Amino acid sequence: MNESQEDLFASDPSIPLPQTTASFAEKRPLRILVADDNAINRNVVQTILDRLGYQPIEASGGEKAMGLLKKEPFDILFTDIDMPEMDGVELAQALREHEKSSTMGSNKTEIIAITANVSPETKLRCKLAGMDGFLEKPIDQDRIKNQLLKSWRRIKNRPSRS
Fold first, then answer.
1. Radius of gyration of the chain measured on its C-alpha atoms
2. Range in 46-55, 59-68, 94-103, 130-139 the model is least confident about
3. Which of 6, 11, 47, 34 is nearest to 112 (CA)?
4. Number of domains the chain is built from
């Protein structure tokens, strides 16, 4: 299936994609964590990533995500900004602090904000917290795919991938 055929399916996550899209993930193997307190939002991102051939792990909030991040490495974290208890900005700050104190070295997790709040102040808060990308809701396959391609360029050259 070519890129234009995939676009036909991008706007409606209820339409199943043929399994040939797995080649995207096969060419760019990534461990992905999705953190969002809203199950529907997690499901949308999960469905898109599934279509691309990934098997992301889900966390229903920032604290649960941080627990998973402390146990095992992830290449990319997609996180909602507005979550109770530990929001996405706090999660990013906590992860960056954890990475500094651990033996992860230069293999830091790419952190991608997902939010409907696209104010300049929110974007600045995300950047200052150490986030690497910013996606505006509503999310679609093209936005996720483009972000994965941007992140892959940085991730593929890490020492642990050599």
1. 15
2. 94-103
3. 34
4. 1
What's the pTM?
A: 0.83
How far is Cα 150 from Cα 131, in angstroms, rounded to an integer?
A: 13
CA distances from residue 5 to 18, 21, 105 in whole angstroms, order as listed? 10, 11, 40
Size (the chain), residues = 162
Establish if 131 belongs to a structural domain: yes
Contact 109, 74 (CB under 8 A): yes
pLDDT band at 101 (very low <50, low <70, confident <90, very high): confident
Instruction: Tell which phi-psi region holds residue 105, choosing left (phi > 0), alpha (psi between -120 and 50) or beta.
Output: left
C-alpha 129/C-alpha 52 separation (Å) is: 28
Between 66 and 6, where is the model more confident? 66
Per the structure, the complete domain to which residue 105 belongs is given by 29-161
Check which CATH number belongs to the domain holding 144 and give it: 3.40.50.2300
